[in-house]
């Protein structure tokens, strides 16, 4: 699968004004933000990219948190291991995904070592005015800078070293680009995926606050909850609501509140109809995410009688 390009309009209401994204530009100048150690592609002996690296002539809007899934939650916290997983990820992205290079801009190991992912990401970040287009958030790569965190965080928490390096790295990126902590997102806020894992995803408010402390700025509350993520096997009122919306969209699914095969087939068909990637993250290596119903599916089925924010708030109840 090729690298997804940006859609003209961000789905799911993920929009931002320049004032919102750069709102703390004056406050951040007084903050003492530590420049993290980031090991370059040369240091981990990266393969050359197989195509031209695209440099967007603008700053990213969002900093997006991922988990790698593979190689899992191992206990090798060494720098040598961090460099090796960078090579492994690049091989997977180039040889299996068919991308020109590593998909994400930066990788964070369980030992707290940060490496450059896609070539030129570090160089361009240091300039603070442009960003390298990655391939880690399908249909939104023009707006997003992605960080892969080594491990699988669906049921377990991240190591302290990884957490601390993630806070420091994001604070530095936000400082360089003038990005407010409110614009730190999880991958699932853009695509229907488990990524960055439920446990790590639940800690995003804490992450925003920790980054805000590093920057010396207060963190505003988000206007509305994000779209919920539903999976095959789920049951309950949200599934029933989704089924009703799918029926209204012409799909013959039951309205029993059980995310069974018919509902999964309808979601997969809807995604295919609209050209949505179902395999845009290494999280898909842990389970089949092709029928997940999340942030890129809900906007296609919710009625037009309410705003995006209103529907997200309603579905969060």
Automatic annotation (TrEMBL):
<dbReference type="GO" id="GO:0009253">
    <property type="term" value="P:peptidoglycan catabolic process"/>
</dbReference>
<protein>
    <submittedName>
        <fullName>Peptidoglycan binding protein</fullName>
    </submittedName>
</protein>
<dbReference type="Pfam" id="PF01471">
    <property type="entry name" value="PG_binding_1"/>
</dbReference>
<dbReference type="GO" id="GO:0008270">
    <property type="term" value="F:zinc ion binding"/>
</dbReference>
<dbReference type="InterPro" id="IPR036366">
    <property type="entry name" value="PGBDSf"/>
</dbReference>
<dbReference type="GO" id="GO:0008745">
    <property type="term" value="F:N-acetylmuramoyl-L-alanine amidase activity"/>
</dbReference>
<dbReference type="InterPro" id="IPR002502">
    <property type="entry name" value="Amidase_domain"/>
</dbReference>
<dbReference type="InterPro" id="IPR006619">
    <property type="entry name" value="PGRP_domain_met/bac"/>
</dbReference>
<dbReference type="InterPro" id="IPR002477">
    <property type="entry name" value="Peptidoglycan-bd-like"/>
</dbReference>
<dbReference type="InterPro" id="IPR036365">
    <property type="entry name" value="PGBD-like_sf"/>
</dbReference>
<dbReference type="Pfam" id="PF01510">
    <property type="entry name" value="Amidase_2"/>
</dbReference>
<feature type="domain" description="Peptidoglycan recognition protein family">
    <location>
        <begin position="36"/>
        <end position="191"/>
    </location>
</feature>
<comment type="similarity">
    <text>Belongs to the N-acetylmuramoyl-L-alanine amidase 2 family.</text>
</comment>
<feature type="domain" description="N-acetylmuramoyl-L-alanine amidase">
    <location>
        <begin position="49"/>
        <end position="197"/>
    </location>
</feature>
<dbReference type="InterPro" id="IPR036505">
    <property type="entry name" value="Amidase/PGRP_sf"/>
</dbReference>
<dbReference type="InterPro" id="IPR015510">
    <property type="entry name" value="PGRP"/>
</dbReference>
<dbReference type="InterPro" id="IPR006311">
    <property type="entry name" value="TAT_signal"/>
</dbReference>
């Amino acid at each position: 699968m090729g690298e997804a390009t940006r859609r003209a309009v961000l789905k799911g209401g993920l929009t931002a004004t320049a004032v919102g994204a750069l709102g703390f530009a004056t406050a951040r100048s007084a903050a003492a933000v530590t420049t993290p150690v980031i090991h370059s592609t040369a240091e981990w002996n990266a393969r050359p990219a197989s195509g031209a690296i695209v440099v967007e002539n603008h700053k990213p809007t969002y900093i997006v948190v991922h988990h790698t899934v593979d190689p899992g939650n191992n206990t090798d916290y060494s720098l040598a291991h961090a460099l090796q997983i960078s090579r492994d990820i690049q091989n997977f992205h180039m040889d299996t995904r068919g991308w020109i290079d590593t998909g994400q801009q930066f990788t964070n190991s369980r030992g707290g070592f940060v490496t450059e992912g896609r070539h030129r990401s570090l160089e361009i970040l240091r300039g603070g005015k442009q960003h390298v287009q990655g391939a880690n958030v399908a249909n939104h790569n023009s707006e997003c800078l992605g960080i892969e965190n080594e491990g699988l965080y669906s049921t377990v928490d991240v190591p302290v070293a990884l957490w601390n390096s993630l806070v420091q790295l994001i604070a530095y990126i936000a400082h360089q680009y003038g990005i407010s902590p409110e614009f730190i997102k999880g991958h699932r806020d853009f695509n229907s995926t488990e990524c960055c894992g439920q446990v790590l995803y639940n800690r995003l408010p804490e992450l925003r606050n920790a980054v805000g402390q590093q920057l010396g700025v207060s963190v505003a509350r988000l206007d509305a909850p994000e779209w919920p993520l539903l999976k095959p096997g789920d049951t309950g009122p949200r599934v029933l609501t989704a089924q009703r919306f799918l029926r209204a969209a012409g799909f013959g699914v039951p309205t029993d509140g059980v995310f069974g095969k018919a509902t999964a087939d309808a979601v997969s068909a809807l995604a295919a109809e609209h050209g949505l990637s179902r395999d845009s993250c290494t999280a898909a290596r842990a389970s089949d995410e092709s029928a997940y119903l999340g942030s890129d599916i809900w906007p296609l089925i919710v009625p037009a009688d309410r705003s995006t924010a209103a529907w997200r708030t309603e579905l969060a109840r």
